[in-house]
Amino acid sequence: MRTKIKTRFIHIGSFVLGFGFLGALDGIIFHQLLQWHSVIMATNRPGQIISDGIFHFAVTITLVLGGILLWLAGNPTNLSKGIRLLVGGILIGGGTFNIVEGIINHHILQIHRVKPGDPNALVYDLSFLAVGLLLLIIGIFIKRSGRTQLTSINA
């Protein structure tokens, strides 16, 4: 397979895998272990369980799709700076999940908060966004450092 196609699969696959991975962590930590919230809080218990089930199903599909794309890309060590592209893409995807989910669900739609009912609920929501932004910035830095070195190698 050509290098450009493999690189594209690593870019897309790592983003999708990171997006799904942070979604899975959100579901496991906040929905199940801490039981702070469900996807849709303003329903009865069966509605909350169904909304969480749909969320977990979508996250699982996202993880599988990311895995398939990375499998199609092949071994990232066969590409110059392939590991940096992989790790950076996973962090960018994860950060994007937190930012998108936080802005849409916590602030725009207000279907749940990170820790609803807590007097510091806004602090939890903003911290969730800050973690997403931090992951995104670190991921971009890692990917760009990989690209810069890749460009200097080919120059």
**Could you say how many structural domains there are in total?**
1
Note the main sheet. Answer: none
- Rg for CA atoms: 18 Å
- H/E element string? HHHH
Principal-axes geometry comes out as elongated
**Number of helical runs?**
4
The N- to C-terminal Cα distance equals 23 Å
Helix/strand-derived class? mainly alpha
Helix content: over 70%
Transmembrane segments: 12-34, 54-73, 85-109, 121-142
Protein name: DUF2243 domain-containing protein
Pfam families: DUF2243
InterPro entries: DUF2243_membrane
Structure description:
InterPro entries: DUF2243_membrane. It comes from Metabacillus litoralis. Pfam families: DUF2243. The model is unreliable at 148-155 (pLDDT under 50). The longest helix is centred in the C-terminal third of the chain and has 34 residues, at 121-154. This protein has one domain (3-154). The protein is elongated, with a radius of gyration of 18 Å. With 155 residues, it is mainly α. It contains 4 helices and no strands. Helix 1 crosses helix 3. It has helices at 3-33, 45-73, 82-108, 121-154.
